[in-house]
Automatic annotation (TrEMBL):
UniProt cross-references to PANTHER family, sorted A to Z: PROTEIN YHFA (PTHR34352)
Lineage of the species this protein comes from: Bacteria, Pseudomonadati, Pseudomonadota, Gammaproteobacteria, Chromatiales
Database matches in InterPro entries: KH_dom-like_a/b, OsmC/Ohr_fam, OsmC/Ohrsf
Annotated protein name in UniProt: Peroxiredoxin
UniProt xrefs under Pfam families: OsmC
Amino acid sequence: MKARVKWVEGTAMLGESSSGHALVMDGPPEAGGRNLGPRPMEMLLLGLGGCTQFDVLLILRKARQAVTDCVVELTAERSTSDPKVFTRIHVHFIVTGRALSETRVARAVELSATKYCSASIMLGAMATVTHDFELREPEG
């Protein structure tokens, strides 16, 4: 896997992935940025959310769970001194579907956190990463 980040101007950067996708990252105005995109540390948090959601949905599909929606909400705390690493990250899943098994969802979240999600495991080497979930029935 490769990636490329090119400085554009100020604090704006263009990130390009080896799969051919590009996105703009930027800093806040108080750091000379124009707020054109997410901050690099936000990208790390988003990457964790995407990685673990991918795992959980794949595991639940294999378990024949009728998932209609899945949202991952992430909350992170950072050190107040440099390097301002993540110290705590909480991952909250909101899984919607018909007659979902609480046991199967719990197992899917656990497997992602402890075995499959490389982002969660890697960030967990530095920060305390916790996970929980809630189940919802579809509306209507």
